[in-house]
Amino acid sequence: AVASRQGDPARARPLFAAALYSLLEMGSRLQIGFGLEELAGLLVLEGNAAQAAHMLGAAGVLRATIRSPVPPSKVAALEKTIASAREALGEEAYAVEWERGRGWTLEQALHEVFGAR
Question: What value, to the nearest 5°, has the Cα angle with vertex 64 and ends 26 and 31?
Answer without folding.
Answer: 30
